[in-house]
Amino acid sequence: MVRLPWVLLGCTLPVVNSNVISALGAVLSHGEVRGQLARLNATVGGRLYTAIPWELPCFSEYNGESVTPDEDACAAIQANYTSPFERTQHFGTYMISQWSTCQAKRPAGECLLNVSNPEDPAAFTGVDCELGDIPSYYIDVQCPTDVQAAIAFSKLTGIRLSVKNKGHDYKGRSGGKGTLALWVANLNSISHDELFVPEGCTTSYDALTIGPGANTEDIFEYVDSINRTFIGGYHQTIGAGGGYFLGGGHSVLSPVYGLAADRVVQVKVVTPEGLYLVANECQNSDLFFSLRGGGGSAFGVVFESTHRLEPQVTLQVASIGFTGHSNTSNLAQWYSLLVNETYKWGTEGWGGHITGPALIYVTPLLSNAEANASMQATADFALAQGGTAVVEEMPSYLAFFSKYVPTAEVAVGTEITLGTRLISSELFNTTDGRAVIAKTIENVLSFTSPYVVVGTPFLYDYTPGSTSVTPAWYDSLWHLGLHGSWAWNSTAEYIADQYTAISQHIQTFRDITPGSGAYFNEGDVYEPDHTDAYWGSNYAKLLSVKQKYDPDGVFDCWQFGWKGASDPLYECFIPLPQS
Ligand SMILES: Cc1cc2nc3c(=O)[nH]c(=O)nc-3n(C[C@H](O)[C@H](O)[C@H](O)COP(=O)(O)OP(=O)(O)OC[C@H]3O[C@@H](n4cnc5c(N)ncnc54)[C@H](O)[C@@H]3O)c2cc1C
Ligand SMILES: *[C@@H]1O[C@H](CO)[C@@H](O)[C@H](O)[C@H]1NC(C)=O
Ligand SMILES: *[C@@H]1O[C@H](CO)[C@@H](O)[C@H](O)[C@H]1NC(C)=O
Ligand SMILES: *[C@@H]1O[C@H](CO)[C@@H](O)[C@H](O)[C@H]1NC(C)=O
Ligand SMILES: *[C@@H]1O[C@H](CO)[C@@H](O)[C@H](O)[C@H]1NC(C)=O
Ligand SMILES: *[C@@H]1O[C@H](CO)[C@@H](O)[C@H](O)[C@H]1NC(C)=O
Ligand SMILES: *[C@@H]1O[C@H](CO)[C@@H](O)[C@H](O)[C@H]1NC(C)=O
Ligand SMILES: *[C@@H]1O[C@H](CO)[C@@H](O)[C@H](O)[C@H]1NC(C)=O
Ligand SMILES: *[C@@H]1O[C@H](CO)[C@@H](O)[C@H](O)[C@H]1NC(C)=O
Ligand SMILES: *[C@@H]1O[C@H](CO)[C@@H](O)[C@H](O)[C@H]1NC(C)=O
């Protein structure tokens, strides 16, 4: 087995890739679970913690027992309840709040504040705070040996493992009732090498190496300071080097520069068998393929990943919209116009987001005059509705991001479900196809307005078979989504109805795009035929690689390489039909 040099500061145990699990198992094996936990804690340098819900200081009852609220701590949480930065600092919370709760037990099994008004005392007065789907224990991971010790511990005790990074997941894949979690958010290094050569290869890349916990916004700021562009997501705190690229990773620049999974050139990972491996095109290439879209923690715990950079780019930005869309025929016309323009916009490199009656798009391929002409009809439409239209040139991606994204990004702290579909390019390319899309949108408007991400790698020169996301990504122009939500005091029945309603409405988009798919990171929790939707023709290979690297099923992931929804690991998920 390959031995890797020790690279992370403060890690004193040598990384050995042979028999490590049985060796650590022998160290941990004496006594009952409590004694084993203490030994595990010693092995990981005292970085093992008991998890508690972030909101606990507001409550006077925890798991049925009286506790003393801490008013100052509670006030600080209330003041920052919807701050994504604050949420990433605490293990016991998620961006999408239902994933810290035991949804199957609702209205019990939660410890949430009222996200619309965090000071609302009804949410925490006389309410029992419960750990919900938050793992029982977590290790603040710093060293590959931490993961090796956790795997050994899991094998000895039967206690299951989970992996949490920045907690952005829409499917609860970074939680798990009763699990021991590996919290990787503090692995947040960022470094640049303009002549990066993947180990064992000869080609060099201008590339950025990041820990999973590096904030997307910090990465954008860093690369701007070195006059480069990183192709990243539409939110400040996504873990670009974690779940984001592992599931695919779209950006408003993806139409030109590809998905995050297209751009990664090397990954260092502790596999489910406890081996610390380098995966790239030249070694462990099957693992590399799987880490480029297989999703979540199925193939182990990523310590660092290296991503190609682009030079600094000048962007054209279009921000166009109107308000007062109670007139849905108005809104239907707007979407019809956007559908009509989409294929042309695709060829011009535009990417962006459509949120009901507003869009924010960017392209690196046009001049300002060309961008104005391209957006003319859309600007005219919005202005005729009393709206606004700006088409401006920005000197860098960071300038665009700082001005537009923090106020436009998806809010956190809410409980929401998504249903999404990749809408095939060829449908936008014919009059009939466009009419079908526009009609399907019109029909759904009385229920909700689609949230459209224009972030597919439409112009990107992709090498077939290089990534494991569904190939449908490369033949689509839109990643279209419908959202449903509910409140902290909702019942399991009500929540189930929201999942079902979203699933039924997105079905109309599945029906018009046979053979297409959906984005694993941002899909229906109960996606029918999910293996085909998320991985398509890549699924068979992906599953065989999973069996090779994780024969014992150490890392279970909802919908991939799993034991199924009836696994006790998923006891907090509401049991709903899926395939
Ligand atoms: C507000 C918001 C905005 C978003 N915007 C975008 C966007 O613009 N583009 C886009 O593509 N997606 C976007 N997403 C989706 C996002 O990419 C996924 O939620 C992604 O899974 C987040 O990864 P994370 O590591 O931050 O989250 P986590 O919830 O911590 O982890 C997500 C999954 O990845 C696994 N994982 C994380 N780190 C590691 C690691 N180091 N090793 C092994 N497994 C790991 C976890 O086990 C889990 O399965 C957004 C999500 C939210 C909530
Ligand atoms: C692990 O050890 C540290 C340092 O001794 C201690 O603070 C922490 O509470 C221990 N964790 C657990 C779960 O006991
Ligand atoms: C909210 O968070 C910010 C930084 O994340 C911090 O500076 C501020 O003190 C917090 N507010 C309160 C009331 O704790
Ligand atoms: C939460 O707060 C909002 C805003 O004050 C209020 O309208 C709502 O009734 C509260 N409760 C619930 C369950 O949403
Ligand atoms: C930044 O990069 C751009 C594009 O490569 C280049 O034209 C410009 O000269 C660079 N600026 C500096 C200050 O290096
Ligand atoms: C709604 O918008 C459509 C299209 O712009 C317009 O023809 C119609 O008159 C509007 N209806 C109302 C009630 O404003
Ligand atoms: C979109 O194109 C179709 C077919 O060419 C046309 O009937 C429809 O009016 C167009 N939509 C808008 C809003 O212009
Ligand atoms: C493009 O439109 C903007 C208004 O949105 C205007 O300020 C700018 O001058 C136009 N650019 C060109 C090249 O005409
Ligand atoms: C769209 O139509 C053009 C012209 O007929 C054709 O060249 C192109 O291949 C089509 N694209 C797709 C994705 O169908
Ligand atoms: C939740 O709280 C709101 C506001 O107090 C109330 O109107 C609603 O009936 C409650 N829902 C349930 C299921 O109790």
Automatic annotation (TrEMBL):
The keyword Oxidoreductase is assigned to this record: yes
InterPro entries named in the record: BBE, FAD-bd_PCMH, FAD-bd_PCMH-like_sf, FAD-bd_PCMH_sub2, FAD-linked_Oxidoreductases_BP, Oxid_FAD_bind_N
Alphabetized SUPFAM superfamilies for the sequence: FAD-binding/transporter-associated domain-like
Protein name: FAD-binding domain-containing protein
Family indicated by similarity: Belongs to the oxygen-dependent FAD-linked oxidoreductase family.
Pfam families: BBE (PF08031), FAD_binding_4 (PF01565)
Residue ranges occupied by any FAD-binding PCMH-type domain in the UniProt entry: 131-312
Organism expressing this protein natively: Rhodofomes roseus
Keyword field: Oxidoreductase, Signal
Database matches in PANTHER family: FAD BINDING DOMAIN PROTEIN (AFU_ORTHOLOGUE AFUA_6G12070)-RELATED, GULONOLACTONE OXIDASE
Cleaved signal peptide residues: 1-18
